[in-house]
Amino acid sequence: MSEAEGGRSAQLKHTGLRSGWTTGACATAATTAAYTALLTGDFPDPVTITLPKGQTPAFALAAEERGDAFAMAGVVKDAGDDPDVTHGALVRSTVRRLPPGSGVVFRAGPGVGTVTRPGLPLDVGEPAINPVPRQLMRDHVALVARSAGTEPDVEITISVDHGEEIARSTWNPRLGILGGLSILGTTGVVVPYSCSAWIDSIRRGVDVARAAGRTHVAGCTGSTSEKTVVREHGLPEDALLDMGDFAGAVLKYVRRHPVDRLTICGGFAKLSKLAAGHLDLHSARSQVDKGFLAELALRGGASKPLAAQVAAANTGLEALRLCEAAAIPLGDLVAAKARDEALRVLRGAPVTVDVICIDRAGTVVGRSSPA
């Protein structure tokens, strides 16, 4: 169980879904318990921390160890009802005394990554422990030190059991964070299905690309579209953004942090949603509008009977195939409209946009000119 008080996570109003706790919150709890044990000899279990918005969750300890010059405590992460790859991971903090005046020093233990590329909110060579979790740990260490009448001069080493293996399922390798996971969280709370970690990874991907001097990046809905973009434009890995369904997240961040050119590449059906004005392309939050496709087909020269067939099609792909058979460039029309919607969201930012639509095999079925 990752956090105490009966293992209860925070409850989301109205949804019935449990929220959970970030790796940063777990690392803070483990650090607070370890430092308390280092100073007093006793591990507080459960250990209570205060999050940036005032919540005070209590975490049960899953591991503890104490030696002459160190103490270690571990907390199992509970992501609540969010499908988080780090759910169930054991986050450990080992705290050691340092000479007076040293302050708080952070280290990456096994399973926590190290930053190897510029563009992230941490310097190259630093452990991948983000600024907010660092500040949370500093604040809690200072409180523990104050209660013991001492100064918080300590080395904090954060590790995650099996973290290097788990990190292969995250953006970290592409972002140049090597050796394990990042310790994340700005509020300490994981909101189920908010996909905040994914959106944060998109933003960091843009930052890393810009820091590497990339002037052309691509927002891709999956691995097949990534391969298509590499084939079409020869882009390097650090210029590829795993956009998934979050077209809006890419466009809004690039609006604030422009690059010269943005290519959007994805399946025809998904990008037809962007063309229709949807910025979240997930099937639970937007649907393929066959009536919209029928209108585009009419503009492209389709007969009214063909447009009626498009409107009645079972899937977007069927609508595309009907138009292809009649030499109506529905794929190009969708790509052009998706590009125009992207430009609308960019609001005049100095970014040239083009769109590539593919089918499930990765064949290009539509493209726009850059604009």
Automatic annotation (TrEMBL):
Xref: Pfam families = CbiD
Q: In which pathway does it act?
A: Cofactor biosynthesis; adenosylcobalamin biosynthesis; cob(II)yrinate a,c-diamide from sirohydrochlorin (anaerobic route): step 6/10
Q: Name one GO molecular function term.
A: methyltransferase activity
**What are the TM regions of this chain, as residue ranges?**
none
Q: Which UniProt keywords apply?
A: Cobalamin biosynthesis, Methyltransferase, S-adenosyl-L-methionine, Transferase
> Catalytic activity, per the record?
Co-precorrin-5B + S-adenosyl-L-methionine = Co-precorrin-6A + S-adenosyl-L-homocysteine
InterPro entries linked: CbiD (IPR002748), CbiD_sf (IPR036074)
Gene Ontology BP terms: anaerobic cobalamin biosynthetic process; methylation
What are its E.C. numbers?
Answer: 2.1.1.195
Q: Which family does it belong to?
A: Belongs to the CbiD family.
- Protein name (record): Cobalt-precorrin-5B C(1)-methyltransferase
